[in-house]
Specification:
By secondary structure, the chain is α+β, with helices and mostly antiparallel strands. The protein folds into two domains: about 120 residues, D-Ala-D-Ala carboxypeptidase, C-terminal domain (Peptidoglycan synthesis regulatory factor (PBP3), Domain 2, Sandwich); about 180 residues, Beta-lactamase (3-Layer(aba) Sandwich), CATH 3.40.710. The chain is about 30% helix and about 30% strand. The protein contains nine helices and 18 strands. A hairpin with a 2-residue loop joins β17 and β18. The longest helix has 17 residues.
């Protein structure tokens, strides 16, 4: 047995369709999950303040599950005040030492002002210490499918062993938008006043007329300037994550350009209907030599409007598939590439049942497999 590969309908992949100054970048369509752009998207990097997305995911999950409420309050410790408050010289909501702050206000401090003191107050209130809370962040990351992100603190301040990727940051943002719509709105808040100090949202995309409503920015000496941005235009939502930019101005401009290109340059396309056979997998020892493969419903993807020749698709399965094959049995995946970016993977299932073949049929398949199986 070996790896089955079947090319379908489209032509060979080519280079990226878009260029960016970012060292790492990743952009996804929120509705279909289509990956529109990827550049070194899986290289580990320090998250800086973008780690606060994971801090908020843990908080939002606790609120959704009823373990916390927006009216819960937490006390500002000296550690939170010195490490993330006014004396720290870092992003802060200027929380007063030993004051008690409602969780909703802390959330606004973090989402609008990237407040380090707000993160630490939450972490200590929820888990007793930042280290314990960071362990919860990493555990929660694994639960939602982020395999490379590891957190050491709640703020994203430099720490050995703390890392993420732009792909996982974008997927985390998509998860937050999908699962916490009532809480996601805080990311689009333009400003927030605490301790009589008004601060505007640090996300530069919110000031642009592009439909932006989130999410976060970060910067570190090791990783450069980064951003996770989300825009919603005419019912289409795109989420992009970028890192390794040289300045806050370059970060804003490159993020705007990437998101604008994503909106203008792709068209939603149904490439296979709901009951349409996508292809066929070879069957070993069956009453038939092949089985039709179908997806669970239509296969929809955003394809480039001007470069359809840059798209390729293939069916990949471990085969030939041994009989008997049951209708609905998962057999493989359909992979669609845009340029050199793996854009979408769709599970494929047997569209019919194939019983065990007769003795002569099985003997023929065995002889054929012996003759050509080594080529796979």
């Amino acid at each position: 047995m070996g790896l089955g590969l079947l090319l379908v309908s489209l032509t060979p992949a080519a280079a990226q369709l878009f260029e960016t100054k970012a060292a790492q970048a990743f952009m996804i369509d929120a509705e279909t999950g289509t990956v529109l752009f990827a550049k070194d998207a899986d290289r580990p990097m320090p998250p800086a303040s973008l780690a606060k997305l994971m801090t908020m995911e843990v908080v939002f999950n606790a609120i959704k599950s009823g373990r916390m409420t927006l009216d819960d309050s937490f006390v500002v410790s000296e550690h939170a005040w010195r490490t993330g408050g006014a004396p720290s010289g870092t992003s802060t909501m200027f929380a007063k030492l030993k004051s008690a702050i409602r969780l909703e206000d802390l959330i606004q401090g973090v989402t609008v002002q990237a407040a380090n003191d707000g993160c630490i107050v939450i972490a200590e209130g929820v888990a007793g210490s930042e280290a314990n809370f960071a362990a919860q962040m990493t555990e929660r990351a694994r639960q939602i499918g982020l395999t490379k992100s590891t957190f050491v603190n709640s703020t994203g301040l430099p720490a050995d062993g703390q890392q993420t990727t732009v792909r996982e940051l974008a997927l985390l943002a998509l998860h937050i938008w999908r699962n916490y719509p009532d809480l996601y709105r805080y990311y689009g808040q333009k400003d927030f006043t605490w301790n009589k100090i008004l601060q505007r949202n640090r996300n530069p995309l919110l000031a642009m007329d592009i439909g932006a409503d989130g999410l976060a920015v970060g910067a570190s000496e090791a990783g450069g300037f980064g951003i996770v941005g989300s825009i919603n235009q005419n019912g289409r939502r795109l989420i992009a994550a970028m890192s390794g930019l040289a300045s806050d101005r370059e970060r804003a401009e490159e993020a705007r350009k990437l998101l604008d290109w994503g909106i203008r340059s792709f068209q939603k396309t149904e490439i296979f209907a709901g009951d349409e056979a996508v292809g066929e997998a070879q069957v070993f020892g069956g009453a038939k030599s092949g089985v039709a493969l179908k997806a669970k419903g239509p296969v929809t993807i955003f394809l480039p409007t001007a470069n359809r020749d840059k798209v390729t698709a293939s069916i990949v399965y471990d085969g030939p598939v041994a009989a008997p094959v049951e209708e609905g049995q998962k057999v493989g995946v359909l992979r669609v590439w845009i340029g050199d970016t793996l854009s979408q993977e769709t599970p494929l299932f047997a569209g019919e049942s194939v019983g065990v073949g007769s003795l002569p049929q099985r003997a023929f398949d065995a002889a054929r497999e012996l003759a050509v199986g080594w080529l796979r």
